[in-house]
Amino acid sequence: MGINSETELAANLQIGPTDQGMVRIYIQGDGVDLPMDFEPEEALEIAEELKGAAQRAAAMVAGNGKKKR
Fold first, then answer.
1. Total-model pTM
2. Is residue 1 part of a domain?
3. In the prediction, which pLDDT does 15 show?
């Protein structure tokens, strides 16, 4: 499955700090229980990548003449 593959799977996503000074991204769904811990610097890099991807996606939508939902 790639980034552009659609799926019917659903999962919950939680993001927050741990008591150990890490940033946890926690994904839970049917058959999935995945905690991922990152150093704060790594989490900031991930946040920058997410923001960049969101900006590129918004530009693609705007370029296609679609309205925001």
1. 0.77
2. no
3. 98
